[in-house]
Sequence to fold (699 residues):
Amino acid sequence: MSMTVPEMYGSLVFNDKVMRDKLPKDVYKALRKTINTNTHLELDVANAVAIAMKEWAVDHGATHFTHWFQPMTGFTAEKHDSFISPVDGGQIIMEFSGKELVKGEPDASSFPSGGLRATFEARGYTAWDPTSPAFIKDGTLYIPTAFCSYSGEALDKKTPLLRSMEALNREATKVLHVLGNTDVSSVTTTVGPEQEYFLVEKEAFKKRRDLVFTGRTLLGAMPPKGQEMEDHYFGTLKTRVAAYMHELDEELWKLGIPAKTKHNEVAPSQHELAPVFDTTNVAVDHNQLTMDVMRKVAEKHGFVCLLHEKPFDGINGSGKHNNWSMTTDTGVNLLDPGKTPAENVQFLVFLMAVITAVDKYADLMRLSVASAGNDHRLGANEAPPAIISIFLGDELTAVLDSIENDTFFGKQANVQMEIGASVLPHFAKDTTDRNRTSPFAFTGNKFEFRSLGSSLSVSGPNVVLNTAVAEALSEFYEVLKDVAPEKMDETVHELLKNAIKEHKRVIFNGNGYTDEWVAEAEKRGLYNYKSTPDVLPVFIEDKNVALFTKHHIFTESEIKSRYEILLENYAKTIHVEAKTMLDMVNHQFMPALTKTMDDILTVASKKKDFDLTLSVKTEKALLVKLSAAYDAIYDAVEKLEKDTKHAEEMEDELALAKFYQETILADMNEVRGYADEAEGLIPKENLPYPDYADMLFYV
Ligand code: ADP
Ligand code: MG
Fold:
């Protein structure tokens, strides 16, 4: 008996429908109010919700519950408790209280805190986030929670996200009210993350220590065929891949994740999945869950799902496009140009707020996507450049030009103008979305932030976006708040004009992959942070600390702790890569080389035994090449070993991160260069692990 898709969809989610069915009316109402207006939940209400939740969960086969949270590791964390509670006579009952629902107290000492939490104060707590629905996975009731230290400092990725949504809600609503749109009582941000991934054979994966330990290949020459034929993008799905995607969709649907599109990507064995967008907080949770389910379902199909940003050198890496917009509780998408002049003006105000925000805080946007993995993509002509700019398209750029030059509103600037005398052009999606080289593109009714790496939590980029736009809106509000109604149109016009003048430098509609753009961006004074260690220090710059503290996203100590975690995480990542490379080269690749030389020597000497006059010219030539490669690799490995030891002794975190980036990565490239060249000289059976062709073309 199989379920229809509508029956299946959300069948494992404690969603609004279930709540309405299972909860007493007054409890439902109180909970709804908490969810919608972010207010405190009374303990008796929490108790009633807990009972209904537990009954529903047990009916669906759950035996445990967990507070599910997102610590600074970038992964999710969970600790499972069963519902059982012993009673007299050796019996148990299934129990779950409001207190257990609302708050948990996991030992926080093993999660990164960047020095926030002294060891004697290792306790942390998790707090239920009722705005993201609970769900059942693998027999456990999952309760989405925020994770804080005992003194209330955020130790996770959800807390700042909720704070940033609150800041944007507050500032956007104020601006809407001052513009006369008083029906609106709240504004939320929406996100639709498109997720790229690779599938490789589980058997092949297990033989590659680099994939197992680091998620990416550290050695490996390009196969005879790469992605140059462009035959994979949107190609027919192979049977096993189609079966995988089918099951993945079903598992996601059960969890209420609206998986919508799936297709093959540019690189061989690379694919993409995109859901329908949702409230940012829910979309972030869902994306974490999607990555998790992707990995689990892959195992069942004999695959491993790779979410690393750059699993294969010479082949496109994987990213994540963060589609973002703002919606009112009256159902209006604020980045939709709309049909009436009033809607047009509202759109222009919010559009300019985003442009202002991105120009002023491009450094933080770059920071929000920085990671060791993503450094292999950004600026490497397969992903957006490291320079953050905005693609608006010709039509909208022309609209801004005409506002700047006083021609858009069709009146002289000194004459009182009517709000939005002209109606904006309607944007056909295909005319707005052509430029794939832009990191931040307007795509008709939303912005698409394209610089995210595939493994990244989408929380960080949205914290920055929400906060920076909230700040721009709060500046706009300061300009508009005391303006008399009859002066409003003119003031809005001036505001837009000034914002365009000041921030248009961040708009760029051309090809972001060219050297001309790099030079032009420098002339315009735009940031160009090439690597993670380059950009991390912007986190603690005064301007950015001021932004985050003003809007109550982070305290100063939270910022410092996060900065430290990011530095440490970067250094650790490259450290593990360096050690893994040394292991593979010393224990697998070099022995394969010596074995090959030995084989050739054996042939040569057997030939001579057989007939002294036989030529060993080819054997000699091969041996010369192999021996040269052997020496070169040995020297490069020596240097990598020495530098890695040196790194282990360094103290200053920033200097260490820079050392890994400038020296260790360069050492690793050197080793890899020689090894990959020599790979062509080694018979396949001498190499103890699968090569690129095995991994990329046999799924
Ligand atoms: P593509 O970019 O592949 O052409 P779409 O533009 O249709 O596809 O959508 C890409 C993603 O953008 C989807 O996840 C979609 O749900 C999301 N999206 C659409 N509208 C919004 C919105 N208002 N806010 C956030 N995300 C959105
Ligand atoms: Mg897209």
User: Anything to note?
Assistant: The CA atoms of residues 196 and 272 lie 4 Å apart. The chain has three domains: 5-156, 165-554, 571-697. The chain has 23 helices and 17 strands.
